[in-house]
Amino acid sequence: MSQNKVHVPRISDAVASSLERRILEGSLKPGDRLPPERVLSLELGVSRPSLREAIQKLASKGMVQSRQGGGTYVTDRLESSFFDPWQDMMGAHPNLREDMLEFRRMLEGQAAEWAAERATEADLTRLDQAFETLNDAFTADDLERRSSADISFHQAVGEASHNALVGHLSAALLRLMHDNIRLNLGELKSIPAASSLLMRQHAAIHAAISERKPQAARAAAETHIDFVRETLAQSLRSAARRETAARRLNTDFSPSTIS
Predict the structure, then answer these.
(1) Segments of the chain assigned to CATH 1.20.120.530
(2) Please, how many CA atoms are within 13 Å of residue 92, restricted to the half-sphere of its CB?
(3) Start-end of H helices in 74-190
(4) Does the domain at residues 11-74 carry the CATH identifier 1.10.10.10?
(5) Contact 31, 73 (CB under 8 A)
């Protein structure tokens, strides 16, 4: 008489799955260092050998890596597989920026809508903090600080959507668009009231999510990206005009060159 065997998962598999879930949900982000082995084994209630085996499983997948000098860190594998080839393509084909912004409009509009529906109190607290940091950055005259705070705010929205793919795609896309975001903010400095307009757009996204208004959150996010798209188009046109003017200035108009 055959007996059905009950499959009992290995402890290390369960621990690896738990850590992997933290990476997927964004609790552990690329570059984060895992807690010390002693601390993490106590937190998870497992032996240190089981924890080491679990970490080795994640390392074999490329999810974590050990660094010289000690410590195990989360890699950016989930994002770099999207980021790396597109970064090269963006450099070779500037017109792809428009396609990226079109995709970002769709992604961030949906992310904002879901965030308004699904955000927990902890998510809203993180979003409040990101918005406050963004507001402070816009008050200061530091372009790098502004662009980093802008990215952090939109990433907080993506993670509050509670969709793992949206969260990681948002992170990859924002990394990819980092130079463009900085370019946009730099160009906007020459436009009167542009900074206050951008902050009002971010405030509208923040308020709609906090007030649990999904459609308003989507509309606010899409309005913001539409503004960014138009600003990028203007900045590219301005750059082209400056290049043309510089070439004209450097043209040799001596009689010997005129037929």
Answers:
(1) 78-246
(2) 5
(3) 77-92, 96-118, 121-139, 143-160, 164-176, 178-188
(4) yes
(5) yes
Measure the CA–CA gap between 126 and 78, rounded to whole angstroms.
22
What is the DSSP secondary structure assignment for residue 74, as one 8-state letter? E
CATH 1.10.10.10 spans which residues of the chain? 11-74
**Cα–Cα distances in angstroms (integers) from residue 83 to residues 79, 95, 96, 211, in the given order:** 6, 17, 14, 33
Consecutive H or E run containing 255: none
* Residue 28 · residue 22 · CB < 8 Å: yes
Q: What is the DSSP code (8-state) at residue 95? A: T
CATH homologous superfamily of 78-246 equals GntR ligand-binding domain-like (1.20.120.530)
d(CA 255, CA 258): 5
**Is-contact 63 139, C-beta < 8 A?**
no
Residue 57 and residue 13 in contact, taking contact as beta carbons nearer than 8 Å: yes
Residue 247, both tokens: 């070439």
The per-residue pLDDT for range 82-98, each reduced to its tens digit, is: 666 676 676 667 677 77
More confident residue, 145 or 111: 111
Tokens 């790098």 correspond to: 144
Q: pLDDT digit string (tens) for 62-71?
A: 888 888 778 8
Provide the 3-class DSSP secondary structure of residue 256. Answer: helix
